[in-house]
Design a protein that fits this description.
Helix content is about 35%, strand content about 15%. The chain is built from seven helices and five strands; from the N terminus they run βαβααβααβαβα. The two termini are about 15 Å apart.
Amino acid sequence: MNKALFIDRDGVINIDKVHVSEIARFEFTDGIFDLCRRYTDAGYRIIVITNQAGIAKGLYTEHDFLVLTRWMIDEFKSQGIEIDEVYHCPHHPYFTGRCNCRKPEPGMILKATEEFGLDISCCVLIGDKESDLESGRRAGIPEANRFLLKGSPKDNLLILPGV
């Protein structure tokens, strides 16, 4: 497995309700499990990359994020889907200064590529913002493999690249 689906969290995995840090506010998007299952069946690792500026802003803690993340991973497991890793950026330039991990910077993707020995030319990125796609571009993910989600994953299943 030297290819991965890089997937954003807020707006792709869950409905973006701004600074979601509690299980009670976390709502999976329609079709997300089917989308991830298609990629795992095609031999892709599933790697989540997510900006979490709410940590830098003091709206929730790193611990809060990790509790929610563990729950999310378990929900995927209950659907027969393995999330290989979740990378997050807890920074925000106005609160913590610049970093190389906050999208559109490619730090999270580059770290995953190194840690998992990925062939970046075979990887796919799905995000809901241009900054997600820019992060993939800077990391070397081919343009044809960077996808901007419009609507829910269910609405996009037939046109997604890589599967």
